[in-house]
């Protein structure tokens, strides 16, 4: 069944010129782009996006980082799109969890600067897509 997920190329990925690489891997997997926008996110949107992490020790740094420069937000569509993109991204920690061949495994070193975000469940995807692409 086709579904949608929210993908972000985070400020580190944009800064390092990896937007094309992320999009290329999404397309090679067979997923489609339903919406795409380059945007510097306001703090209020970042707080809402990461609401589940608000009590974590890294929350402040995470907000600073995600609002530090433009991100590319993409609504990605396809069969099992949520799990499929998480497979492409690799685990949250680019060294300990992400394996080579994944975006984070190939390009990341630090957990905070892990290049991309992908919704982790259908509920998160729905919530995040409403926040980033209210008109979709
Ligand atoms: P993401 O998949 O966008 O979801 C939450 C983000 O918080 C995560 O990617 C990382 O960028 C960040 N994060 C998670 N754990 C840590 C950590 N231990 N230290 C710093 N940042 C973290």
The CATH homologous superfamily is termed Nucleoside diphosphate kinase-like domain
Mean pLDDT: 98
CATH fold label: Alpha-Beta Plaits
Q: Number of helical runs?
A: 7
What is the string of helix and strand elements?
EHHEHHEHHEH
* Overall form: globular
Strand order, sheet with most strands = 2-3-1-4
Could you describe the largest sheet, including whether it forms a barrel? 4 strands, antiparallel
State the distance separating the first and last CA atoms.
19 Å
Q: What is the CATH architecture term?
A: 2-Layer Sandwich
Rg over C-alpha atoms, rounded to the nearest angstrom: 14 Å
**Binned strand content:** 15-25%
Helix-strand makeup class: alpha+beta
Low-confidence stretches: none
Bound molecules: adenosine-3',5'-cyclic-monophosphate
CATH class: Alpha Beta
What number of domains? 1
Number of strands: 4
**Helicity level:** 40-55%
Subcellular location: Cytoplasm
Active site: 117 (pros-phosphohistidine intermediate)
Catalytic activity: a 2'-deoxyribonucleoside 5'-diphosphate + ATP = a 2'-deoxyribonucleoside 5'-triphosphate + ADP; a ribonucleoside 5'-diphosphate + ATP = a ribonucleoside 5'-triphosphate + ADP
Pfam family, one: NDK
């Amino acid at each position: 069944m086709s579904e949608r997920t929210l993908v972000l190329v985070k400020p580190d990925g944009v800064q390092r010129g990896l937007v094309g690489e992320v999009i290329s891997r999404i397309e090679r997997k067979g997923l489609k782009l339903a919406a795409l926008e380059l945007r510097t996110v306001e703090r209020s949107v970042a707080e809402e996006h990461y609401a589940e992490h608000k009590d974590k020790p890294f929350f402040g740094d995470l907000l600073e980082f995600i609002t530090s420069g433009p991100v590319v937000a993409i609504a990605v569509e396809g069969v099992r799109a949520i799990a499929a993109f998480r497979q492409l991204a690799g685990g949250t920690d680019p060294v300990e969890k992400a394996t080579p061949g994944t975006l984070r495994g190939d390009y990341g070193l630090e957990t905070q600067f892990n290049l991309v975000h992908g919704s982790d469940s259908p509920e998160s995807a729905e919530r995040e897509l409403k926040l980033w692409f209210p008109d979709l």
